[in-house]
Amino acid sequence: MIRTRLFLVTIVLALPAWADTPFDYFDNSWSVIGLKDYARGTRITPDNKLMIGASLGTSENEADKASVQIRFGKDLTPLSRAQTKQLMDGWLPVVLLTAQDGPVRYEFTLWATPLPSASNWREAFDWPKENENFLNWIAVRVVNTSSTASEGKVRFEQAGPYEASNHPVPELNVPREFSWLLEPEKPAEAVVALPWEPVKNTDFSREDAKIWLDRTVQFWQNLLADTMSINVPCKKTVQAYKAAHICQLIAGDHGELHGGEGFYDEFYIRDGAYQVMELEEAGLWDAARNAIKAFTDHQLEDGRFESQKGQFDANGQALWALWQYWKITGDRQWLERVYPQLRKAVDWTMQARRSAPADPPFAGLLPAAPADGESLWDGKHHILGYDFWNLRGMLCTADAARALGKSDEATLLMKEATAYSAAIDKAWKQTGLHHFPPSWEKEGTHWGNTETLWPTTIFPVDDPRITALMEEVRENHLGGFVEGTIRWTDGKIEPAIHPYMSAYTTMASLVRGESEKVVDEFYWYLLHSTATHGFPEGIFYKRHFAWSNTIPHVTGASNYALLLRHMLIHEQDEELHLLMAIPDGWLDNGQEIAVEHAPTHFGPMSFRAKGTGKGVQLTLEPPQRTTPKRIVLHLPKSRTLENVCEGVEVVLRDNQSRRIDFPDVIARYQGR
Question: How many CB atoms lie within 10 A of CB 1?
């Protein structure tokens, strides 16, 4: 034990106001600290232990990892779920916690840095230049808020995360316990610094924590400084948007996009296609360039793209992801290099369609195959999502062929796409349903069949089958939406909802101009997050629990950022739409929406929309690379455009029937 009135170093921590505890939906609220593109990050458990796993090997099983338990106060009470995690400045990967023991307040700060021994620490923040090891910092500031001296005490101890863990646990290479006699309003401070992998005979806790905290903050701030900036009149919305970028960059491994940190820690084309789009639309170009390479590396000899064995949606998703990268960068030379891979993948689709039985209902469709999202693993079902995605990929490849002057190939591909669409229409008629089911056999869970108008339209916007499908999942399927979110279950688990899969239906509503529904479901999506803005995969909503502890889930974060971006800026074929679905309150008198340096299919753009006493004033810097056929500004009928903005067409929509914002959705959730 160390008993002292003074501490080793002085740290000035930019901690938030302590009065209000932010809303956190989850009982199993996880967070992560880590560095960009390192293979591992440190997960912070719901009860605020740090999972430092390398000391016990490379297992992905949480029970095989070491953890650091933090105790505080005279009785050395362990931190628990009672202490809600927050992020510094609302989005930085610096976790803040506070705890109270009588008059003594404990303020904890947790973050990650390169090892101080790194030869170039600046480069090591951005990439594991020398090795994968990094440092986990835990700093505590202890304040006596009373008028008389009080005792303060903190203990750091290392043990397995669960009682069932039988692994030996290495000793901390730092003092375990600190104790102070605290004078009123004279803070004491302590730090421990723990490497992911043990470093012999080195105590990093003697390093200057203030310097390393400043370096951490500066790195992440600088990284996002030149990216797309979104500011709207909702702090939670903006903070979660920035945190989504950080979630991606920490979970990525050497540029390859992964689904999570410590879970789903590998590359999936299904997730990665949306993840790389999020990086592109954020303007994180270095990360996007590194990430897109994984798609070109996952093509099989027969031409098909695959990341999950035997599943066919990845082929179309990879084609769309490669097309989308070209559309938003305008990089024709890159498109010329990858076009042969696009064409080879489409050739696989064409051959696979011809190998199907010639008789209905499967003529002209892809063969039966196992399906993850649809929970049809037997390989005996024909999956609509596979056909939808391969049709989308074919249309994207035809567009690429036209852009490269390959008119004959474009014509051939469009003819093939028309025949493919006709085969889908015939198969749908055989189902006898009004909507598109998950499989042509009418079995499985809804997934790829909902990706109809998003991320690109493959059917008319007003197609009655899509209308029927949206009604089916929202009103009927397993009882309809819960908490503004689609239900998903494979029949083996308790009732669950699936926010990021629900987003595909929400995006279909955005394309169809259903503004109020989009805004309502956007805020339900945001509700299903932690106080550190971590999004889940699926949720056991009756007990507020993310299944398999899948927080923060990177696709969940990416789909949130994509939804927000397209509510503000949306490309529809050759048109550019602004404010297609936003809360009316964001345009109240004195409120402002500001978007800067936004990459689009037409080039970068910026705009500001400010509410006034009479209406809305718009300032627009339109994209210059290519000119959209239309630029459309969507406004509620109560908020007309005051100033003339050349080239902008205004479309007025109905006012929303109620005020929709984050406090509103919390109140509805808590009062239901």
Answer: 9
The C-alpha atoms of residue 402 and residue 538 are separated, in whole angstroms, by 40
Range 305-332 average pLDDT: 98
Q: Which residues, 6 or more positions from 203, have their beta carbon under 8 angstroms from its beta carbon?
A: 173, 174
Quick check: is 238 in a domain?
A: no
Parent domain of 586: 577-671
Asked if the structure places residue 460 within a domain, the reply is no
Of the candidates 202, 224, 246, which is a domain's last residue? 224
Buried b (16+ CB within 10 A) or exposed e, 606-634: bbebbbeeebbebebebbeeeebeebbbb
**What's the CA gap between 312 and 508, in Å, rounded?**
22
Q: Is residue 158 part of a domain?
A: yes
> Contact 314/305 with Cβ under 8 angstroms?
yes
Structure tokens at 410: 């474009």
Tokens of 382: 């024909």
Question: What pLDDT is attached to residue 662?
Answer: 97
Q: Give this prediction's pTM.
A: 0.94
Residue 59 has pLDDT above 70, yes or no: no
Whole-number Å distance between alpha carbons of 406 and 464: 34
- Beta-carbon contacts of residue 58 (< 8 Å; ≥ 6 apart): none
Q: At what angle do helices 285-296 and 313-329 cross, to 10 degrees?
A: 140
Number of compact structural domains in the chain: 2
Token code pair at residue 498: 């699936």
Read off the pLDDT of residues 334-381 as tens digits, 9 standing for 90 and up. Answer: 999 999 999 999 999 999 999 877 777 899 999 999 999 999 999 999
Each residue's pLDDT tens digit, 548-598: 999 999 999 999 999 999 999 999 999 999 999 999 999 999 999 999 999
Distance separating alpha carbons of residues 622 and 293, to the nearest angstrom: 30
Checking if the pLDDT of 421 tops 50, the result is yes
Determine the distance from the C-alpha atom of residue 102 to the mean position of all C-alpha atoms in its chain, rounded to a whole number.
39
408 pLDDT tier (thresholds 50, 70, 90): very high
Nearest to 251 by CA among 87, 42, 63: 42
Mean pLDDT for the stretch of residues 134-142 = 97
Res. 16: pLDDT tops 80: no
Return the HEC string of 533-602: CCCCCCEEHHHCEEHHHCCCCHHHHHHHHHHHHHHHEEEECCEEEECCCCCHHHHCCCCEEEEEEECCCC
> Could you report the per-residue pLDDT of 262-318, keeping only the tens digit for each?
999 999 999 999 999 999 999 999 999 999 999 999 999 999 999 999 999 999 999
Here the tokens at position 20 are 């209000």
Q: Is residue 271 in some structural domain?
A: no
Query: How far apart (Å, rounded) are the C-alpha atoms in residues 552 and 24?
Result: 13
* 8 A C-beta contact, residue 531 and residue 84: yes
Residue 449, C-beta contacts closer than 8 angstroms, at least 6 positions apart? 384, 385, 388, 436, 437, 438, 469
For residues 458-477, one letter each, b for 16 or more C-beta atoms within 10 angstroms of the residue's C-beta and e for the rest, the string is bbeeebebbeebbebbbeeb
Task: Give the whole-angstrom CA distance, residue 391 versus residue 172.
Answer: 56
Share of the chain above pLDDT 90, in %: 87
* Single residue among 172, 206, 224 that ends a domain in this structure: 224
* Nearest residue to 619 (alpha-carbon basis) of 585, 589, 578: 578
Phi-psi region of 659 (alpha: psi -120 to 50; beta: other; left: phi over 0): beta
Helix 235-251, helix 554-568: angle, nearest 10: 130
**Region 503-529 average pLDDT:** 98
pLDDT digits (tens, 9 = 90+) for 557-566: 999 999 999 9
